[in-house]
Specification:
By secondary structure, this protein is α+β, with helices and mostly antiparallel strands. The chain has six helices and seven strands, in the order αβββαββαβααβα. Strands 1, 2, 3, 4, 5, 6 and 7 form a seven-stranded mixed beta sheet that branches. β2 and β3 form a beta hairpin. The longest helix is centred in the last third of the chain and has 53 residues.
Length: about 300
């Protein structure tokens, strides 16, 4: 009897150790032991740039009419914005390359924002570039670092430009009429003061429109490039130590084995009770059969 108990205990221990080894092997398969590298990227690439750059393009068309088409050339005013976001593991070197590319195309840095400490630095640049060299600058920036995103938007501003011209022409005509009334010198003092205020108001609006129209002048013709450079920091993580793997595997094996033992004990007890119940039923059945046979 003692040998049987010892043998059963040995089988239980061997089963436990076998399950422990299998669980450790499963841990190595699902979580490899080698070191891993994690990349941490600095903040997002979007930024606000309120600069307004407009360009002009001669568009050939035809004048409206019932007869044959008459050649017509229209100056299209448009706003073109390119947005390039790149990630870099060599932040300082790539920043120098970006500035060199801007200098190469004779661009103008109209907005600059540097932020973050080493490892999490970001650089945002708003660049004005002549339309003929827009694509060249975009190509230079795409080749730097690791391209994260690129977007190019072009919006027609011809109607807006014409509306500003029409508003200025109307205000100048109004100002001329008011000045003519002022030259007459007739009217009360209050009327003359009101007239002067209206002239001043018209001049102020004409100046504001002049500033807005100045953005469309040939000397200010630029396309906009919004460039963002995000620093990437590579972080190496340690592999999982063997002691940690054994600890996790041992805890799991103890839990699993205890549940398995409880299931076996409960199952054995239930089976034993079922066998006893069957024996009792059989005995009572035999007694009932003998009684019926005697009668």
């Amino acid at each position: 009897m003692k040998r049987k108990i010892t043998k059963c205990l040995c089988l239980v221990v061997i089963g436990f150790l076998l399950l422990l080894v299998i669980r450790i092997g499963y841990g190595y398969r699902t979580h490899p032991a080698q070191q891993a590298s994690v990349e941490r990227v600095a903040g997002g690439g979007g930024f606000q740039f309120t600069g307004k750059n407009y360009a002009t393009k001669a568009v050939k068309g035809a004048a409206p009419g019932a007869g044959s088409a008459v050649p017509l050339q229209v100056d299209q005013k448009y706003e073109k914005v390119g947005t390039v976001t790149s990630k870099s593991k060599s932040f300082v070197e790539d920043e120098e390359k970006i500035r060199a590319a801007v200098k190469k195309v004779e661009g103008l840095i109209q907005f600059e924002q540097n932020s973050g400490l080493e490892g999490q630095r970001t650089l945002h640049l708003g660049i004005g570039v002549v339309p003929d060299r827009f694509d060249e600058l975009i190509g230079e920036l795409r080749a730097l670092g690791e391209l994260a995103s690129i977007r190019i938007d072009k919006v027609d501003k011809t109607n807006e430009y014409k509306m500003l011209q029409a508003q200025r022409a109307t205000l100048e005509a109004t100002k001329t009429s008011l000045l003519d009334l002022k030259k007459l010198g007739s009217g009360s003092v209050e009327e003359l003061i009101t007239l002067e205020e209206r002239i001043s108001e018209a001049e102020s609006k004409i100046q504001d429109l002049g500033v807005n129209l100045g953005d469309f002048d040939a000397e200010n013709e630029f396309c906009t490039v919004k460039c963002s450079l995000l620093e990437v920091q590579v972080i190496s993580t340690r592999g999982i130590p063997f002691s940690q793997r054994v600890k996790v595997a041992f805890e799991w094996t103890c839990l699993f084995y205890s549940r398995l033992a409880i299931i076996c004990i409960v199952g054995t007890a239930a089976l034993w009770l079922a066998v006893l119940a069957l024996i009792q039923i059989r005995k009572h059945g035999e007694k009932l059969t003998n009684i019926l046979a005697m009668e």
